[in-house]
Every structure is written in C-alpha cells, then in structure tokens.
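=== RUN LOG ===
request id: a7f3
mode: sequence -> structure
chains: 1
length: 451
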Amino acid sequence: MFGFLDVGARQLAAARRVLTHLAETCDLPVAVQLWDGSRVPLGSRAEETGLAIALRSPGVVGALLRRPSLDHLLRQYATGGIDFLGGDLIAFGEALRSAKQKVKLKHLKKSLLLKAAVPFLFARAERKEVQHAYAGDCNGQNAATRNNKDYIQFHYDLGNDFYKLFLDAEMVYSCGYFTDWNNTLEQAQRDKLEMICRKLRLSPGEKFLDIGCGWGGLICHAAQHHGVQAHGVTLSQEQYDYVREKIARLGLQDRVTVALCDYRELEGTYDKIASIGMFEHVGIANLPTYFRKMYSLLRDRGILLNHGISRRAKPVSKRSKKRRPEYQLVAKYIFPGGELDDIGHTVNVMETSQFEVHDVEGWREHYMQTTAHWCRRLMANRDAAIQEVGVERYRLWIAYLALVSFGFKDGSIQIFQIVSSKRASKGRAELPPTRADLYAPVANRAAQKVA
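=== RESULT ===
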C-alpha cells in the first residue's frame, strides 16, 4: 500500500514538474487539472481565461505516452479520460492558437521530459473502447464494399431530435451564407436558401430536383418563394419521414414531393437541379457517374448547382489515396464513405461530363462560421444531446464540429458552389449577362421577372 502511495506521489510530482516547465517555455492561456483536483497554469493568462484541460487519472498520461496518436487522444476524450473545463472547444482552440507564436517546444528540456515519463510507463488507464465507430469499410474506396445507404443512415439517422439541438428552425444541415458576419445562424440559412434559388434562376412552374434534400428546407423554400414544382430525394429514413410531415404541415402536397431512394434510380427531366452537401458522400471514383446522371436528368440549357466541401489541391506527382489522420477519424466515427476532391479536379470532371461551368464561388469562411455556431449550440444543449445519443457520441460530435470549424478557418478544407448548365446544343446559355440579379432587392427581381 505504501509503495502504491509512493508511486502516486511521484506521478503527481512528475506531472507538475513537466507542466511548470511547459508554462515557463510556452506561456499558454490554459491550465491543466490533475486527477487529484489540483491545477497547474500553463501560462500567465490561464487564471484569466478560466480554461483547463482535465486529466482524470495517471493512466491517461501513461496511455498517451504509449500510443501518442490523434486517434488515441480522441478516444480518451470520447470515453472521459480527458475533459475540457471552463469553455467550449471553439474557445479552447482559439485560446491555444492565439498563443501559437509563443510556443517554443524546441526549448523544452528533453532530459526532464524523459525522467518525468518514467513513473507513467506502467500506469494503466481503465480500458474503454469507443462504441460508436462505423463497423464496415469506413473509407468506401472499394466499390465492392461501399454501401451508400449504410453510410448515410450512420450519419443522419441519429434521430431528428438530436439535429434539432444545433440546427436552425428549418433544419438546414449545410453551410450558411452570412451577408453580415454578425447575422444569426437562422438568418444565414434563410439567406443561403434564397441565394441557391437565385443562382439557379428558378421561375414559377419549373421542375426542380434537390439530390440529397436533407430535412426539406430547400425544396419547401423553392416552392413557397419561387413557385416551382420541387422534388427531393434522400437515403435517410429519419429525413424522409420528417420531410413528408413538413410538406403536409405547410400544405405543399401539390407542389413538393420527396422520395426515399438513391439518386441513381431517378428518372425524368428537370429544369434545374441542386446538390447541396451530397457531393462529399459520393467518392472521387464515382464522380463521373454522379455528374453524368445529373446531366441525363436535365433538359438542354438546364442549370445545375453543385455545393460541396473540398480539400486543397496537391501536386499531381504526390496525389495519393492516403488520408490524413483527422480525415480518417471523421470517416471512422462520424461520416463514413466521405471523400473530398479538390476544386480543379471537380471542374474537370464536370466539363468532361459535358457541363458548361459558369461560376465558382468559395464559401470557406461561411462554413467556418456555421460549424462554430453548430458546435456552440450543441454544447449549450449538452444534457439533451446526451439523452438522445449518449455521452460518448455527444463528445465525438463536439470534437468533430470544432475540428471542422478550425479546418475551414485554416483553409485545409474548403467549400465551393459551382453553377453549370447542360449544353447539349450550340448557342447561348440561359443565364443573364451579369450577376447583378443575385444581389438585387426582392421587389426589383419580381419586377424584372414580370417584365
């Protein structure tokens, strides 16, 4: 027993010694709360911010020393070995990044770190496996094992009540459009739906298709405000049930329909097509099939708006299917089957699929803002979220939304809207000569349509 107490005392002393040295070297605006409840500030502003990283046991330190990977760090957070106190993950990220220039890890004393690690080498943490990982091929790069329906349902069928905790009232689960950075999420999503309709130049009576329609925000908005006949498709049972109820509640049965099916099963001809946040689920190898299918569904001169997340382009000689660790974690725990293309390759595939590309607009900063809103709203509804999906999955989602928000902020991930049209015959496209109509007041646009 006394030997055990001696080991525990040495572990606490070693941890404090390292943290004190780290504070002297790096001056970070957070503290570390050790398993005995004591706090060690990592910089001069730690007390001012009130932010602290909690380590629940010496075994957590030992586990991370033995397996120092991003995956293992996320597992420790998801299962409660690590916690964040005094603020949300966005606040933690911003605080640590604000001190980035002060961090001088190369000045840390290696001998001190090695000596302090010794008491933790055999410290055992309670073994907890993350329960909510996708069980199959989470990457989806093998066509033989790829199951789009399973992927969609893993991500979306957590229950509509869960998504209500952080989405806006219209349940729009894609990048908002902030005409002012101080706008609310609700305003940004309304402005996004309207901007999509304007870019498609929707007109009353047109047949409009939304591939991957989510909870029906766009098809209902397009029917109500632009007079189209709208049809949406989804592979999520939860979304399908919700959209059907929404259509009935709004009395739009004569103008809006929804189907539970794969986009590849669609038939018919449409004037305009939108694909919002569907693109990321397709997989790069399947993009030619994806765009050729939409081409077949459009009338000549019909307009397609493709809205999707992308990654930064790499030199052709270094292009590889190897994924960065953070992308692999997202595929494993949140978004199986997803794959990000670069914008140049996407445009190339669209053109080889015979689309004429008219406009490409980056919304990176808009999605940075949107995901930060989602992260904070979900954290504000922590208890309700845990009741819906459990504490582990709640923590995974918080980490995911914060990670994605900073990814957009740094530019490691991006998002683009591409406006293109089917050009089956020669001649002028059905687009105005300038973009002025996109930003005109509503009354002016109505007058222009009548004229």
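=== NOTES ===
The first helix runs from residue 2 to 26.
The chain has two domains: 2-120, 148-450.
=== END ===
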